[in-house]
Write a structure and sequence with these properties.
Residues 6-142 form the Endoribonuclease L-PSP/chorismate mutase-like domain. The chain has helices at residues 4-11, 61-83, 108-123, and strands at 29-32, 35-41, 44-45, 48-49, 89-100, 130-136, 145-153. The protein has 154 residues and is an alpha+beta fold. The protein has one domain (4-20, 27-153): 60s Ribosomal Protein L30, Chain: A. The longest helix is centred in the middle third of the chain and has 23 residues, at 61-83. It starts with a helix and ends with a strand.
Amino acid sequence: MAGRIEERLKALGITLPTPAAPIANYVPFTVSGSLVVISGQIPLRDGTIVYTGKVGETVTPEVAKEAAKLCFINLLAQLKAATGDLDTVKRVLRLGGFIAAPASFTQHAAVMNGASDLAVEVFGDAGRHARSTIGVPSLPGDAAVEVEGMFEIG
């Protein structure tokens, strides 16, 4: 039987993918006590990076916001792998966003709202979180966006 969060995802039309395997020498998540830290997730769908390029050049901020949303969905897939049950999540503590963009781009926060808004849609008030969002010159695989997260479980 699906739990409360799984039902919420279903209502939002979201199916969690198989968690992506790491592409280098790291683990996808670590669990310590009541904390789960998830490595940065890029906008993968069926093993393919679906949003590539630089935001503000070849990727619009609106499209990049969708990329951030997909990154959060991939975070959720890792979180489910880490916990076995998304209903164990007490709170989204922190999200970190990396936006591949030229130095002149300044709408990083609006892009990252794709992930932040979905966190609140999925977890309600427990989805409200601290956040950092930075611009970077490039990301693995030419991904437009990458999102990492920290969650409290119990």
